[in-house]
Amino acid sequence: MDRQKQAYGYAILTVLFWSTVATAFKITLRHLTFLEMLLYASLISAVTLGTVLWCQGKWPLLGKCSRRDYLHSLVLGFLNPFLYYLILFKAYALLPAQEAQPLNYTWPLMLVLLASLTGRERLTLPRMMAMLLSFLGILTISTRGDLLSFRVTNLPGALLAVGSSVIWAAYWLANLNDRRDEGVKLFLNFVFGFVYTLLLAVLTGLGTPAWPGLAGAVYIGVFEMGITFFVWMKALTLSRTAAQVTRLIYLSPFISLVFIHFVGGEEIRISSFVGLILIVTGIILQERVSRGAPDEEASKNC
């Protein structure tokens, strides 16, 4: 089979996996607390990532990491998965999936804002106009279409969902200069992230998990946090250019609404759909007006 067709196949598989996770979050949260879901999912993810590394023959790379590398992973693991998913899962516990998912999808905007604050990027007028379009989408979703009242339906949930995108952007920037193997970095991050989560769970107390909740956590750990990363990297490796497959990622939040409706049982509001269109359109526009916007990394969280 042609390499580019294989790349599209892997990319479409990635999109399908990522499109199901918002629904998986909400269903699992019916049986587990957001902290329990993170604990079990991060454990499964660490095991999954470690298994893939072993199958790839990359375990020796762990021994080549320096003390500084491990300290870096200690910090990155705190940002992601621990802090990022802790905030994101709490947002999903407070909001309908159709609201939490697109609000979390604003992380490319937060990346631009953080990059401009640190001097990595210049915030031009065209980029600001495109970002304002996305922020209008955030407001549309948060107010459920009642823009004139400016009354956010669930302010804590909306702040957490958008805040999670800030954490992800900070994680991306902190990860930028780390040249280690991507799989090795991710594995160590999840090992440390699991340790952080376990410590918090021990301090706050854990209940006895129901098996549907554990099944959901396994699914999330494998497909949201685990093997999908390697499937996506395979798509990028096979593709002639990263842009040819990263464009498909924009389908993910819209396909996600289908799963949220038919599997999750939510009635999709027009305001959620319109807001998502505004957010995605703003992201696409601001990436087009910027030269050298990150392609590969800018699509790892959807």
List the SSEs and their pairings.
Elements: H1 3-28, H2 34-55, H3 59-63, H4 67-94, H5 97-104, H6 107-117, H7 125-142, H8 155-174, H9 182-204, H10 211-224, H11 227-238, H12 242-246, H13 252-262, H14 270-289
Helix pairs in contact: 1-5, 1-10, 1-11, 1-13, 2-4, 2-9, 2-10, 4-8, 4-9, 5-8, 5-13, 5-14, 6-8, 7-14
Structure write-up:
- With 302 residues, the chain is mostly helical.
- The chain has one domain (3-299).
- The protein has 14 helices and no strands.
- α2 (34-55) crosses α4 (67-94).
- The radius of gyration is 19 Å and the shape is globular.
- The two termini are 28 Å apart.
- 45% of the residues are buried.
The tally of domains stands at: 1
Percent in strands: under 5%
State the end-to-end distance.
28 Å
In N-to-C order, the SSE pattern is HHHHHHHHHHHHHH
| Structural shape | globular
Q: How many strands, what sense, and barrel or not for the largest sheet?
A: none
**What is the share of helical residues?**
over 70%
Q: What's the β-strand tally?
A: 0
Give the overall pLDDT as a whole number: 89
Determine the number of helices (DSSP H or I, runs of at least 4 residues).
Answer: 14
Low-confidence stretches: 292-302
Structure class: mainly alpha
Overall radius of gyration:
19 Å
